[in-house]
Amino acid sequence: MGTSTTIVQPINEVEDPVEKRPDLNNPQMPLIIGGLIVGAILMIYLMFTQDMVQPLLLVIGLLLGYTLFHARFGFTSAFRRLASVGNGQAVRSHMLMLAVAVTLFAPILAFGFSFFGGEVAGYVSPIGVSLVVGAFMFGIGMQLGGGCASGTLFAVGSGRTVMFITLLFFIVGSVIGARHLPFWTEDLPAFEPVSLATTTGFGYGGAWVLSIALFGLITWITLVVEKKKKPPKMAAVPSATGWKRIFRGSWPLFAAAIVLAVLNALTLMVRGEPWGVTSAFALWGSKVAQFIGIDVASWGYWQGENAAVLEASIFTDSTTVLNLGVILGAFLASAAGGLFKFTNINLKNVAAAVIGGVLMGYGARLAFGCNIGAYFGGIASFSLHGYLWGILALAGTFLALYLRPLFGLSVPKSKDSFC
């Protein structure tokens, strides 16, 4: 069979058995009702105990999770497809998402647009050894762990059992990374943060033009690579038709890219900073460590403004609320498609989940974020570190392609479809 007719399954992870089902099943109404009840209880609790920001962020998180699942919008799989067989379809959807994001972020950051009148700031982080090591580690980890930060959350929400292990050790790695972070950021070389908008003098208008040009260049490069390698294409996933498709997927990648960018911009205006994921993992794990007697409050990571975060309820943490919303949104989306089901695990994929989770957690702390906070949020905020994060994570992906078979994880080839 020629390579031009080979089909790549458009799944977030090739090991996910949900995608092997040819059709949608009937909606799992008991699960949907249960999910809505849990969401309502959490919403009421937040409305009566927290600032109005938190209930709004729960809704945004739910919509993020719903969108991620319905489009199977992946970062891990996008990098793997490009690195392994040269398929850049998903990476091009990233470029669309980022193009919409910078278009929305530019006026928000330039004029300080905020729903609640607070300060608005993007993610602009230093460039140094910490970023290089952390992003490279994260690239390896997400290919072994079965998903990135957002992918882990929505895979947990949809019932993929091994991802619960990935999440647990993602948290473990985040705590270790928080413990070691002062060494990486204070004792090792680093340059000051670089913003294409403010540091370079381009302004937000010039930075927007430069960003769009870079996204166009990356898009062109993926097309050139595809023309040369003739990789397998992505097939459609199970979906309802007509208006029912809104509720039962599958959404086109371009539609999800736009929705995710809009929701990230809304997050910026609601809480004053973009969407993030992994800082909450460090918080959850540190609270557990503190509960069992470890003096995490003395760590450099939990000094200054972070000290109050550690002592407060996790429900005061906006990233925690967003994460809970993503999990719940993915759960509702999978149940709506009749696709929620716990999956089988084995020793090899458990080992990969443990190692991958630790690498992602540790790497995210060193690199000032994950695929969401550093890559998506950083680039949308016109930070140079976001671009470098993407390059280094892609480099980690190339190495991980040689490691995946050791754990029984497949590596796509140009003449074979994903299976």
Overview of this protein structure:
- By secondary structure, this protein is mainly α.
- The protein has one domain (23-407).
- 63% of the residues lie in helices and 2% in strands.
- The protein is built from 16 helices and four strands.
- It has helices at residues 29-49, 53-71, 76-85, 89-111, 129-145, 149-157, 162-186, 203-229, 245-248, 253-271, 279-291, 305-311, 318-336, 347-366, 371-380, 384-403; strands spanning 7-8, 127-128, 190-191, 233-234.
- Strands 1-4 form a two-stranded parallel sheet. A two-stranded antiparallel ribbon has the order 2-3.
- It is globular and about 50 Å long.
- The protein starts with 6 loop residues before the first strand and ends in a 16-residue tail after the last helix.
- Residues 1-22 and 415-419 have low confidence and may be disordered.
What spatial order of strands do you see in the largest sheet?
1-4
Number of helices: 16
Query: What is the count of distinct domains?
Result: 1
Number of strands: 4
Span of the ends, CA to CA: 16 Å
Low-confidence stretches: 1-22, 415-419
Mean pLDDT: 91
Radius of gyration: 20 Å
Membrane topology: Multi-pass membrane protein
Main location: membrane
Family: Belongs to the TsuA/YedE (TC 9.B.102) family.
Subcellular location: Cell inner membrane
